[in-house]
Amino acid sequence: MLKGIAITGSGSAVPATTLDNQLLTQLVETSDEWITTRTGISQRRISLPTESLSILATTAGKQAIAAAGITAADIDLILLATSTPDDLFGSACRIQAELGATKAVAFDLTAACSGFVFGLVTAAQYIRTGVYQNVLLIGGDILSRWVDWQDRRTCILFGDGAGAVVLQSNESDRLLGFSLKSDGTQNHYLNLPYHGSAQELSPGINVTKGTYHPITMNGKEVYRFAVQKVPEVIDKALFQANITIDQIDWLILHQANQRILNAVAERLNIPEHKVISNVANYGNTSAASIPLALNEAVQQGKIKPHDIIATSGFGAGLTWGAAIFQWGR
Ligand code: COA
Q1: How far is residue 282's CA from residue 162's CA, in Å, rounded to a whole number?
Q2: Which residue is closest in CA terms to ligand 1's atom 40?
Q3: Domain total for the chain?
Q4: Quick check: 160 and 12 in contact, CB under 8 A?
Q5: Percent of the chain having pLDDT more than 70?
Q6: 61 and 169 housed in the same domain
Q7: Is 1 a residue whose pLDDT tops 70?
Q8: Mutate which of 116, 220, 230, 318 to test ligand 1's pocket (most atoms within 8 Å of Cβ)?
Q9: Which of 32, 97, 164, 240 has the highest Cβ tally under 10 A?
Q10: Catalytic positions, please?
Q11: Cα 289 to ligand 1 centroid, rounded to whole Å
Q12: Are both 11 and 98 inside the same structural domain?
């Protein structure tokens, strides 16, 4: 039985509608100059009410399956990393139906902007134990639904999208090392919280009725956390992989902010030409950002078979993690 893992195909999808910084200046008091110098973001894609996470995720998933050279019927497991499902019970099963992945078991996984890396490691466990052979991992989010469009500290940052990869059992194990972390004591720095008020069913028995409220964030603390913890966790994953920093071909971080990307690369001594970035075009697409950047780099012919990639996700929870892998079989 093959117990190694290979990442054999990728895909991505973004909504057609672009919201550039200039348009944002009509919504909040900000400027293109402020947003680009603090974040590196120029524009982001926004889902219209007729679009959905399931549609974006299905499109990305289809591409990844085709790129891997298999069919939806071959998929054993579909993992959807998202914090913004179309249905709070989960959206993975809708995607399974849309894809026609009849034998796959499907479920959602929530780890905010770390979702893709957490999903990658979760998928790998099922393959390494010999339980499943073909896993479709999708990272997707529509944070535009949950942004306060009057809050200039957050509405400038986020965008919508989905990215996907297929992981398959393989003779050689291409997942070389990983490390995952959580720290709930810092949970209050980044939230999309439920708020409700009591509704009396009968004397003494109340239930809560409400909804989720827009994203709240302490930008400075999240920035500090990312710049400190991401290099540490990449170092841990590299140590586990028995790989040195100069052996890395590409660094693909969660695309939160160009300043975070630059600071992490600098701390790790990774030269700029190895850092993959598309944050200028899409903003922070949460669980989608890593597979979206990965897929673009594969499509552009930058990433070649057996290139060594260091990836790291970080965000709400707080959660963070890194994985070191080689592209392809
Ligand atoms: N346009 C113009 N001014 C803005 C603004 C905007 N969009 N947003 C905030 N400001 C103002 C603030 O009100 C503040 O003004 P004041 O000094 O008069 O109070 C000033 O700019 C500086 O605000 P501050 O919050 O200190 O900015 P910052 O340098 O920390 O940059 C972030 C803000 C959000 C770009 C930065 O903190 C960051 O990148 N944090 C990480 C966020 C992140 O990546 N989150 C997701 C992780 S998954």
Answers
A1: 11
A2: 219
A3: 2
A4: no
A5: 99
A6: yes
A7: no
A8: 220
A9: 164
A10: 113, 254, 284
A11: 21
A12: yes
The predicted pLDDT at position 3 comes to 84
User: Which SS3 state, helix, strand or coil, does residue 21 take?
Assistant: helix
9 pLDDT more than 80? yes
| pLDDT exceeds cutoff 80 at 222 | yes
**One domain, residues 261 and 157:** no
What average pLDDT does the segment 229-253 reach?
Answer: 98
Tell the residue number behind the tokens 């913004």, with chain if given: 84
Asked if the bond preceding 77 is cis, omega within 30° of 0, the reply is no
Q: Could you report the per-residue pLDDT of 270-293, keeping only the tens digit for each?
A: 999 999 999 999 999 999 999 999
pLDDT of residue 2: 65
Q: Give Cα separations from 151 to 44, 217, 219, 226, 239 (angstroms).
A: 16, 10, 12, 22, 41
As for ligand 1, residues whose beta carbon falls within 6 Å of it are 30, 34-35, 38-39, 113, 152-153, 156, 217, 219-220, 222-223, 256-257, 260, 284, 315
Is it the case that residue 231 has pLDDT exceeding 70?
yes
Pocket test residue of 20, 27, 30, 38 for ligand 1, highest count of atoms within 8 A of CB:
38
Residue numbers of the domain that contains 89: 4-175
Same domain, 27 and 158: yes
**301: domain CATH number?**
3.40.47.10
Does 146 share its domain with 258?
Answer: no
Q: How many CB atoms lie within 10 A of CB 193?
A: 12
Give residue 219 CA to ligand 1 midpoint distance, Å: 6
Q: Which atom of ligand 1 is nearest to the CA of 259?
A: 39
Q: What is the mean pLDDT of the chain?
A: 97
